[in-house]
Amino acid sequence: xxxxxxxxxxFIFLLVASVFxxxxxxxxxxxxPSPYAGHWKGAWVDTTYGVTGTLDITISGSGNVTGSVVxxxxxxxxxxxxxxxxxxxxxxxxxxxxxxxKAIGALSINASGHLVGNVTEYDxxxxxxxxxxxxxxxx
Length: 139
What we know:
single chain; 8 strands; 14% helix
């Protein structure tokens, strides 16, 4: 049992690491500006436990993500990470009073101009903690 969980955690770690170093990710030229660049703000919903919150992020032309996150328990934290030109996103949610999470998923701009999608949050041990649905509006 322990070996199976260890292997699962190891493979999830490899997936997370590969997103951050670019393996299997975005194949576009680094000189191509991010189609997601800008300031985005809106809601997220944890579809696993029903927790809600707000996400306020800025995406640079190179795809770097910075910002803040607040949940319905009034816990807040910093967000940092990257989004590729293909919409694959990998971020850290660094809560001040709670555990930190890694969020990995796919986002896109819908017909209404919202940045939407789903991310999976992993805890510090790389186990799935939550599934989030995101809906952000460009500011």
